Amino acid sequence: MLQSKANFPGEEKLIKELIEKLSDIQDARLRLGTDVADRLGQIRTLIIKAEDARLNDLEELPQYYRELDGLNKELMNGYNVRLMNYNEGLETVKNINTIIQRASRLRVIFCEFSALIYMVL
């Protein structure tokens, strides 16, 4: 039976880089998730303080709402960063999948070719 080996160092290097990139993206996703949790805790605290200020000291109320507005903008920016992170991760996974599909096609073609040669012999 005929045996052969294929070696594609460029593809190997590319898939290693893509897997490392995907790992970095997943780490960033986890950090962004904890950042959102921290911000939500701050928002809960500010809402309670704003409600207390509404009942007891109306002069402090605008300060708390400005802080809430700032946190809301930070959350929206964080969402946009997470969305870009997600899209980048999705694109990276698609690229990895493309490389895997190419490699599997090569294997299928090789198997069909081997079977054809075996029949001829």
From TrEMBL:
It comes from the Eukaryota. Residues 9-105 form the BBS2 hairpin domain. It holds the Pfam family BBS2_hp. PANTHER family: BARDET-BIEDL SYNDROME 2 PROTEIN. This is BBS2 hairpin domain-containing protein. It comes from Cryptolaemus montrouzieri.
